[in-house]
Task: structure prediction
Amino acid sequence: MSKSDMRRILVSGACGQIGSELTLALRERYGHENVVATGHRTKPSDKLCQSGPFEFIDVTRRETVEEVVEKYDIDTVYHLAAILSAVGEEKPHLAWEVNINGLYNILEVAREREMARVFCPSSIAVFGPETPRENTPQETVLRPRTMYGVTKVAGELLCNYYFKRFGLDVRGTRYPGIISSETLPGGGTTDYAVEIFYEAIRHQRYTCFLREDTVLPMMYMPDCIKATIDLMEADLSRLKHHADFNLAAMSFSPAELVAEIKKHIPEFTCEYQPDFRQAIADSWPRTIDDSAARQEWGWEPSYDLAAMTADMLEKLGQRIGSG
Ligand code: SER
Result:
């Protein structure tokens, strides 16, 4: 790696579902001491603490961000600290505070310090009931009904504004539901697709909070990490979009996931008791057109439903199987 590729990276939300794995991947790639993991309240795992620096920050208090950025001479931020869709409906004010004011603080610190690059994830939650639900286009109606979606649309617009107005290189993808074996997601509508694996291994049964035919876009963590790093390393001159790339890997319903898990655990059974999250899921797309990501930075997923399920059961089985 040449000197110009050297980065001093800060990851916010590093204890979260994506942050905990992305931080380790970034440390492998850019050097362990060059990637500062930061969190708010959650106690960081041993893996996170032992593999490089860790600091507490609160993204809603700009001075805590400035202090760490200054201390480590940060030039790149992966801003993953956020409140997800289900918690956002229970605590809309907190969602606004963290997702909007927190992002604004990150962007302002990055602008003032003329940082090289910022990553800020968006989500399929930017779409709403008026959006075409099949093969959802890159450019389409963005009229979400959740506070989470509202903050993500505003966040995309704000990031794109900072690029145009201040030349700050902000990039982001509209993540689908992310499935992972390391850290549980916290408070999303797609969380069932992670919980189901824990229950399938531990108790061979699960009660799903979405209807069995609710198709949603999903992605396995290795693809999520690959997409994030590939977009951040893409040649800026090739990018026509910046903070709002549609991103897809697979789409399935709870019933289809259950059928796939049954191929490995035949005795597994699932019941369905939809709750308030059903309405959120019903307002989101079923499948996504990600051709802009494919064309502009070569995006291509590796995992489909079968490959993801086999890998999840193997990884989780090793970790919690005997517990
Ligand atoms: N996985 C997220 C959620 O369910 C969507 O971005 O809130």
